[in-house]
Amino acid sequence: MRQLMSGNAALGEAAVLSGCTHYFGYPITPQNEITEYMARRMPGAGGVFIQSESEIAAINMVLGASAAGARTMTSSSGPGMSLKQEGISYLVADELPAVIVNMVRGGPGMGSIAGAQSDYFQATRGGGHGDYRTVVLAPASVQELTEVVPMAFDLADKYRSPVIILGDGILGQMMEPVDFDGLVRPPDYDKSWALTGAKGRPAQSIYSLIFDVKLQEEKNWKLQRKFRLIEQDEVRYETYLVDDAEMIVVAYGIGARIARGAIKRLRDEGKKVGMIRPITLWPFPMKALRELAKSVTDFFVFELSAGQMVEDVRLALEGEGHIHFYGRPGGVVPMPVELYRIISRHYYQAHADGDRKQP
Fold this sequence. Notes:
Radius of gyration: 21 Å
Strand content: 15-25%
Structural class: alpha/beta
CATH topology of the largest domain: Rossmann fold
Largest sheet: 7 strands, mixed
Helix content: 40-55%
Number of helices: 12
C-alpha cells in the first residue's frame, strides 16, 4: 500500500522491516527524523533504541551490538559522521556488519543544514585511518531509499563489513509516495563468529590490535581481497537515454534528479544528451563509463559540491574523452533550468570544436 512519507521516516521503517534490531543515534539536522522514528518504532518491534551521549558513543554501541550478532544501524550528518570515522575503521578491521546512514549537509565545518553532496570523499575513500573501503549506496528517491536499506543490510552481512547509505538533507526531508510491499528482508547469514558466550564451545574473540607487522600485513591483504571481490560483483548503476547520446551526464542522488529534468529539456530541443547514475559510489561503475567512452566523447559531471565524484570519472576514463564539470557547494540546489543552460553551453562548445576526435 502506497503512503506518503519523508525520506528519513521511510528509511527507518525500511530498516525495521529489514530486520534491524538495534539502533543507536545522536541528534543532528537534517537526519533527526530518523532518530525520532526509530525511538517510536523500535520498542514496539522488539528492538533496542538508545539515544547515545555522542556520535562517538553511538558508533561504538553499533560495534558492540554487531559483535554480538545483531543487525544494527546508526545515522548522522556532517560533523557527526566525522566523529564516527574511528569506529567505522574498527568495524572494517573487526569485520563486523553494520549500516551507517549519512544525510549530508553543507560543509565544511558546522556548515549549513541544507542538503549537499560534499561528503563523497569521506564516504568513498574510507574516511577513517588505515587501508580500507566501505560500500556506499546513493539512492535518488524516497522509494529507492527503501530499496537500498535492505540491500545495505544484505551487503553488510554478506561481506561482514559496514555499508554507508549516502543521502542528503533534501532526500531525508522530502515527502514522496512509498510502497513497502516489495521490500524483501535480507537473508539471515551464519554468524557463528559472533560473541554470544562460549558455553559448550571454545572461546573466540574479535579484535583489531595486531602487534606483529607480518600478521597485520596478512590481515590487510585479506581485507583487500574482500574489497576486490566487492568491486567485481557489487557495482550498481542506472543509465538514461545513452544509446544515441553525444554527451553523457554523470550525476548521483538528488543531483541526478535535477539532471534528468535538464536532459528532458535538452532532448526536446534535439540535443542528444544522456545520463549514467551511479547507485554504488563505491564500488564506482568504472567499466560502464569506459564502455560508454567507446562511442561518446563528452562527459558532463554534475555534483552538489565543489567537485569530488569528478575525480572518479577522470580515473574511470583514463584520459579518454572530454570531461566538463558543474557544481554548487554549500547546500545550494539549482533548478533543472539552470543546469539545462550550463549543459547547453558545453554541448554547443563540444560541437563547435571541429578538430575534436571521435572515439
